[in-house]
Amino acid sequence: MNIKKQTWIVLSLFAIISFLIWKQTSYKQISFLNLSIGKKQALQIAQEYIAQKQNVDFANFQHAVILKSRTSADRYLQKTIGFNKELEFIKKNDFNLFYWKVRFFKENEKEEFLVSIDPKNGDIISFRHIISDTAKREEIGSKNSQLLAKNFLKDNFNFDFSRYTFKEESTEKRDNRTDYYFAWQKNGIEIPWSKTPNSGTAKLITSLTISGNEILYFSKNHLDVPDQFSRMIENSKQSGRVFSGIFMLLYYLLLMAAIFFVVIQKNSIAMHATKNFYAILAGVVFVLLIVFHLNNIQNFLFDYSTASTLKIFFSELALYLVIGAFLSAISLVLPGLAGESMACESPKKQKGFLPYLSSRFLSREIFFLVLIGYLGAIIMLGIQSAAFYIGQQYFNVWIERLQIPQLSSNYWPFLTIFIIAIRASLSEEIMFRLFGIHFGTKILKNVLLAVILSSIIWGFGHTHYPIFPMWFRGIEVSILGFFLSFIYLRFGIIPVVVSHYLFDAFWGGAGFILGKSQPFDFITCLFVLFIPLLWGLFAFFINKLENKEIPLKLNQHQEYNLRILKNFLSTPINWDQNSKEQIKQKLLAHGWDALIIDKALELLEKKES
């Protein structure tokens, strides 16, 4: 593929502008993350803290460590005071958006310990000792319980009660004990939800639960958000689920269309030429998804209910995950086969993977397509950043940082980032660009309409991701879909897969790369971004038989059809003053295979020359 100098200049200029837009509007949204304390350190801190308070044999306990976020507080602060003031609030009030949560538990026993740890400095910010409802504790009364709570706060947090107002006291009587709950509200922290009277305000709360002489629970500086805000969030999520449900219906319709096309075109040469490639691709995706789930075991353990055994829990989980991984892998194959066949029918055939299934996967052309992918990813960041800036200024949009805790909780975050990025880029680009655009063009007879429709379906399929308001997420991703469609139609499948991969991988690893993190996480997440470039450089230096043609493997019936078509085209009157592309489209309309038509036209050109 010959990429003109002007094309490189234009894409490079757009990439530079996009980087500057991202740097100005989005960099600060993620660079404040501080994970100076890692998972192993958090586990050790939690064990030492519990050992000081309780006589616990940790050998009898299982444990899980995950990173959590105060998502509701983050949403509320962004919505009410904006991101810049949110950062000021966090610093001034020693507030934690993210925290390590360590769980110690036993099979078939209710007792467990939960410890939350500040990832910046290792401070304990909350603790919970879960015990049986019938567990016995000494009765010390409300006044002594409150005194115990105050002493605990003074000794552990240098708590200045002059800066707080006593907010709430409640009592819960159980069979063999009484639990006392106390809460203090920090003075001067009341953030109104809206200017409407009685709409509620957010308050900064420190609370404890005392039972006998034991602190069963405490939480430092919890932001208590108004009920109206929580209801608005739930309503917005419901809208997102509606959009996502519509997408799933359209997605399954596309998948059924791909299955139907594969069945009726089962003799397609393009399908037979690529079936082994897609089978291998599906196998690789299946294995990667299994590895993904194994790497994510800490999150599963955190959700494990001690009412069942771990053996039963993991048996059910394994069955569910294997079936899910298998279906995900299979759903990649059928749109790929159908898309490859349809791509051969378009005037510019080099769209799918078919042209690269010879040694051209190791050519200098691949290197330049990978570079296009990198420029495309940077431009995508700029498009998204500009869209979010407009959304935040005019449509009350705010962002979510849920990826950070989800990824940090894995054994190796970089591995999860890689798998998410490679799986999403392959499956979505094959479905919505390789298959979606060509299928839409075949049905609608218009490439632009096909691009718009496939991009909108893809875009609104992302509304289950919590970006508020939900409709904005659909528009934002649809715009990215328009851009990826342009890259696909101009340069083929490889640059869009690379761009999509890098875009997802960057946002997955941005917190580790731009914020403060463990050295291993920083290096490995950075490495994930260089994987396509390493492949491109390897292909550039190998440059193995760049122009090698893929031999068509025709059966006896197809060879016969090729001879007939060749004889037909050899008669000038049959051209009827039509161009070769017009002839191709007429033959396609009569059911001829696109690759046989191309081969016949190629032989005709050789004969004429």
Question: Which tags fit this structure?
Answer:
609 residues, alpha+beta, eight-stranded antiparallel beta sheet, 20 helices, 8 strands, 62% helix, 12% strand
Number of strands: 8
Q: Identify low-pLDDT runs.
A: none
Distance between the termini: 23 Å
The description of the largest β-sheet is: 8 strands, antiparallel
Name the assembly state: single chain
Mean pLDDT: 87
Give the strand content: 5-15%
Given helix and strand content, the structural type is: alpha+beta
Shape: elongated
Fraction of helical residues: 55-70%
What's the alpha carbon Rg, rounded to whole Å?
30 Å
Topology diagram in text:
Blueprint: H1 5-25, H2 28-31, H3 39-53, E1 62-69, H4 71-81, H5 83-92, E2 98-105, E3 112-117, E4 124-130, H6 141-157, E5 164-173, E6 178-192, E7 201-211, E8 214-224, H7 227-264, H8 269-295, H9 297-303, H10 310-343, H11 364-394, H12 403-408, H13 413-444, H14 447-460, H15 470-491, H16 493-514, H17 519-542, H18 556-570, H19 580-589, H20 594-608
Antiparallel strand pairs: 1-2, 2-3, 3-4, 4-8, 5-6, 6-7, 7-8
